[in-house]
Design goal:
Distance between the termini of chain A: 56 Å
Helix content of chain A: 55-70%
Largest sheet of chain A: 3 strands, mixed
Oligomer: homodimer
Structural class of chain A: mainly alpha
Strand content of chain A: under 5%
Number of helices of chain A: 20
Radius of gyration of chain A: 23 Å
Order of helices and strands of chain A: HHHHHHHHHEEEHHHHHHHHHHH
Low-confidence stretches of chain A: none
Largest interface: A-B, 34 and 34 residues
Strand order of the largest sheet of chain A: 1-3-2
Mean pLDDT of chain A: 95
Amino acid sequence: MTLDQKKWNTVCDKAREAMLLQTVADTLEWDERTGMPRGGGDYRADQVSYLRAMVHRIRTEPAHGEMLQQLSEQVGELDPQDDLAATVRGLRRNFMRDHRLPEALVERIARATVKGQQCWDAARRADDFSLFRDSLSEVVELKREVGQRIAEGSEKSPYETLLDEYEPDARVESLQTMFNDLRGPLVQLIEQIREAPQQPDRSLLQRDYSVAAQREFSRFVASAIGFDFDRGRLDETSHPFCTTLGPSDCRILTRYDARWLPSGLLGTMHEAGHGMYEQGLRREWFGLPPGSYCSLGIHESQSRLWENQVGRSRSFWSWAFDHAKKAFAPTLDNVTANGLHFAINQVQPSLIRVEADEATYNLHIIIRFDLEQRLIDGTLLVDDLPDAWNLAYERDLGIRPPSDANGVLQDVHWSAGLIGYFPTYTIGNLASAQLFDAAAAELGDLDLAFARGDFLPLQQWLREKIHRRGQCESGESLVQNATGRPLSADSLVAYLRNKLGNLYRFEMP
Amino acid sequence: MTLDQKKWNTVCDKAREAMLLQTVADTLEWDERTGMPRGGGDYRADQVSYLRAMVHRIRTEPAHGEMLQQLSEQVGELDPQDDLAATVRGLRRNFMRDHRLPEALVERIARATVKGQQCWDAARRADDFSLFRDSLSEVVELKREVGQRIAEGSEKSPYETLLDEYEPDARVESLQTMFNDLRGPLVQLIEQIREAPQQPDRSLLQRDYSVAAQREFSRFVASAIGFDFDRGRLDETSHPFCTTLGPSDCRILTRYDARWLPSGLLGTMHEAGHGMYEQGLRREWFGLPPGSYCSLGIHESQSRLWENQVGRSRSFWSWAFDHAKKAFAPTLDNVTANGLHFAINQVQPSLIRVEADEATYNLHIIIRFDLEQRLIDGTLLVDDLPDAWNLAYERDLGIRPPSDANGVLQDVHWSAGLIGYFPTYTIGNLASAQLFDAAAAELGDLDLAFARGDFLPLQQWLREKIHRRGQCESGESLVQNATGRPLSADSLVAYLRNKLGNLYRFEMP
């Protein structure tokens, strides 16, 4: 292979320039969500949209596309997992998506989703879906057009191309199969738990957990599990997230509730999981595909693994409990590590996805995955969405939302144009369990390590198998290579049956 | 006059675009100084220098200069204080400066001042001027070249054109006269105070002032004197400053010392004074000269007025003392308002400018003003600077720095290329006293208002006379129009004699 060095340098420089401006815009948005003065909003919107438009212009320059086309032929003989091949493939993939979308459409979507989020917010407050109806219809139509334009000439459906933006190369049919394999066992498990002889004492988690103490304890735990505070920071916001502002500047955000321990602590572990993935990417490839996260599903696998497989494990609490007791004294004085661990693993069907436990969470996702496919292919009308939502909740979770605010209006995603995004949450859950199984099989007794506060072997295993691979492989291939088998529901089902069966003391099949 | 509307719109849009990018860069620098992770520095420097270069390119486009030239002729018949005239004049003034500097020189200065600050920092830590010598020489040479290029064909000296960047239209000769008028009375005053019968108890300020309590109290005071927290915020940093990130987003920063009350509290009032100036500029002119601060001297007059004429006044403490007593209980239990007020006004010659009291502060500035002129005109060599510094301190303040770290190496300014900047501090001090006199004469008994916590009349007077005028007048003209006479040392001298004479109980001449 002879790679045209000049073209290679040009496309890499352009991609890095776009990333530099994107991270500038992301810094402004981080600031907006961590305490920007109220009055700053309008001007901040001007600044961010100016920068985003610049990024789009740089990324869709026709000359850029031509060079990528030529380089693409030149790297054809390389191993597709090679950094050079991955770079050209990833940049070309993004260019091919972006450049099929006329600027006018991109602008209409930007406006429609800003308006969509405002209408959604108003509708949720007023508990009145009709206030959201028109703007959701507009968003659905625009995203359908995006899907159609990108799908043109390919074998994919419009919905599948939307999904592809978040989870490259994922296919609807195989997700459908996996999700079906998961749904049955989950419904059965929830049924067994409902009738189980042993139930946890949830009130342990609703005691006095001062925000100041939570702040300190969360920071301590994030640092202990491996989040690097020299290359990141932890802040507070109303809707937690993780954002990367440079190769050594990853910001995670959480929120604390002084009468509810899990949201702050497990929320921090969740975001720290995202953050450690970002911190584990290869710095020298920052802004290019080999140094970028693979997919949202893989990203979520990292956050869920640290939140659930670690943060909700008995061995983690063998180490953490004494620290927690000291941090929150005297709140935990008459509590045992077993009691706290059981409470943190309570399973209880509920209406709100973000508050759902590990067993019911994926049922929330499967419902959304089904509904959003039907919205895009036109078999479900926006007018019929609330009824369809409520029916699905009654069928799958056994509870019917008393109002749309607690039902179809609970998530911001669709209003923001994020259609095809929800399934990545369940992909992440499946992958987290399967990756953890493989790590435990390779590394020996992880529980022993956790019980003495040693999380480094697990972090290093993930770094090697996942983080450092960037976009050199697809998510599917990463999981296959790290675990020796294709992604499936098996690990998650076995993990939940085992842990919850022990806690609730029901017969396992 | 017929103003070419299209050209007018173009130059205004360009100026606003440059400001938008400048405020983006300023936001990144604010973030850098308020908790950016250590690892983020390198990439942050890339982001900021990319943005600064864009701003420079936009501001020096030749077409921009031509349009400004044409508009300049068109607004010739307008009142020079008219917004349109001020806009064209201000933008043209900046263009004429910037465009005389070849990009290569701008880049060399950027590199030399980054290196300069690093060498300065190392030299200060090691207390070794020789580590700073070479890079200071380079900065001085480059700034001399800047001064020469801009001065070419004008009646100004190179130093005067450097000063002009910070204090437009200020002349060295008239500053020299004012500073001489100030120096004699200050030296006499300090002598009288040294021998005064009454001395304050400084230890009152060195008690236990918890940072948490200071944080809350400083915020309370900033809000009470008029800083608008809906359009600004207060944070902490190692080197306090004020920065404006948008028309309704002004950030002020302070630092707290748990065993020293004045730095946090009076520092906050100082920065709030800067902030209220920025908040008082006309928002509709943001990014254009009528909505921009007039000069650094005028800016400093606003900060010093709230720090000194208000924050060090007896009537302010009539109101603030009970609040402070509560905020810091029991620290102030056996202290009186008079005792605290006296301690806060202690005069004591010292080596460090930023810790100096109101009487000695300007002597520090006058020394620097003299030295930096001689560095630029070549009559003082960098090698001879430390000796010249020490001699001047011995002569004017009666103390000789025991080491360069506490002498010539104490300020960052010269290393950062800020030559011509120091005199604006004394201009600000003179103007603050003169403006305060005029406000008191017009508004009646300000002390009565302060004693009941009413600072609004003073703020509104400043808003009308100073803030809303932006760059429609020079600093000199602003002071003349607000106070009815040209800027002089009279008000400051009378104010210090009066206040300090009462406190220290010496005979006034």
